[in-house]
Amino acid sequence: SSVRLSLxxxxxxxxxxxxxxxxxxxDTRWLSISLAIRSLLQSYQSLLITLENVYNKNNEDSAEAxxxxxxxxxxxxxxxxxxxxxxxxxxxxxxxxIQTKAADFKQLQDFVTSALxxxxxxKDYCSxxxxxxxxxxxxxxxxxxxxxxxxxxITKDKxxxxxxxxxxxxxxxxxxxxxxxxxxxxxxxxLNLLNCFTIFDxxxxxxxxxxxxxxxxxxxxxxxxxIDESIxxxxxxxxxxxxxxxxxxxxxxxxxxRISIEGEDTLNEEIKEEIINxxxxxxxxxxxx
Length: 289
Known about the structure:
This protein is mostly helical. The chain has 13 helices and no strands.
């Protein structure tokens, strides 16, 4: 509600924090989950005190606020949430690098390897990441105790949870599952197939007469249920006109490709060659591809 949001922002002001709204994550987007975790952790202290203020007012929202407060102020929960941040940040970075328009298939192996190395580092409970997390949780614990008014009977034993056990039983298995999932999705054969699509990168184009043939065959074999071997002829036709793209308009390249691919009987190879030569002589043309 606007009243609780105002209270939340006022408490953020007390701690001289930026006004940060909590984000509801999407179910399947790592970037969304990363932003949601980050917004929660950046205002964790303010959120605990806001919930404490709400349940101390003894109104209809008190029970719900108390329940959420007890969950978030639990040492184990706090540790899991803080431990999630470097994990989901790593996955968000990998996801973003793949989804951008400028994504380079040649770098995909590097992206995956970098993500896996980072996740392997996070399997070490003695790493600097978890040392910093434990210090942060201890500060949150002190803050909560300082501001607690009358909940000592409820929170008497809540900080006794063994964080090492939480890491071993919750965080570590999650990291291992993520690593296994990435390795399964980006196994060597999959990366090799994706690398075949680099032939469509104009920077890789050359005048080798066999350029892209092997890659097209690999793509056709992988998608054999959807693409027959005629794709190989279509690729060779496409490559022929692609090499002449700087001298022809996009419209005429498209027309010539259609004639060759669809097999127009009225235009033979000799006539098509005349068309190409005509447009080459008429005016030098460069196209932005």
